[in-house]
Amino acid sequence: MITPYFTAEEGAPAPLRASVPRRVRFEEVDPLGIVWHGRYASYFEDARVALTDRYGIGYLDLYEKGVVAPIRKFHVDYFRTLRFRETFTVEAVLHWTEATRMNMEFILRNEAREVTTTGYTIQLMLDADRNLLMLPPPFYREFLDRWRKGELA
Fold it and tell me: Domain locations in the chain?
């Protein structure tokens, strides 16, 4: 059993999810033929972009509204290796929070659906002048309202 990174708030809506398929490329492995640990940030990013773009809260969506969302925390746990030419999926899971941040978990599974790697990121929201936003901006508040009402599939 993998310990959850984020605890669900009582009454919170279900997390939002998106998965992307990947195949380990030669440039991503070390001399032993296993994925170099530094590549996992890129894998996480592939799934993060798929999820946030699906819901209209991607990097460019935020930027157009004068918001940037830098990563404040990045964590990864390795359980099994991935090797050259191996196919796998990366799932991004956005967890509910009313704070002005995005709590995102990542799960990588190999072809046998075994969990190989998990991790998470926390992204804060800043205005265009790089000041920390204490309350969600209106467009993000609308997104949270739709999520809570179950309007997001």
Answer: 16-148
Q: Is 81 left (phi over 0), alpha (psi -120 to 50) or beta?
A: beta
The whole model's pTM is what?
A: 0.94
Mean pLDDT of the chain: 95
Tell me which residue has tokens 């800043």.
126
Task: Please give the average per-residue pLDDT across 54-63, as a whole number.
Answer: 95
* Model confidence at 3: pLDDT above 90: no
**Could you confirm whether domain 16-148 is CATH 3.30.200.20?**
no
Q: DSSP characters for the chain?
A: -PPPSSPPPTTPPPPEEEEEEEE--GGGB-TTSBB-GGGHHHHHHHHHHHHHHHTT-SHHHHHHTTEE--EEEEEEEE-S--BTT-EEEEEEEEEP-SSSEEEEEEEEEETT--EEEEEEEEEE-EETT-PBPSS--HHHHHHHHHHHTT---
Confidence band, pLDDT 50/70/90 cuts, at residue 1? low
Encoding tokens for residue 140? 């993000």
**How long a stretch of residues is the chain?**
153
Give me the pLDDT at residue 52, please: 97
User: Residue 143 corresponds to which amino acid?
Assistant: F
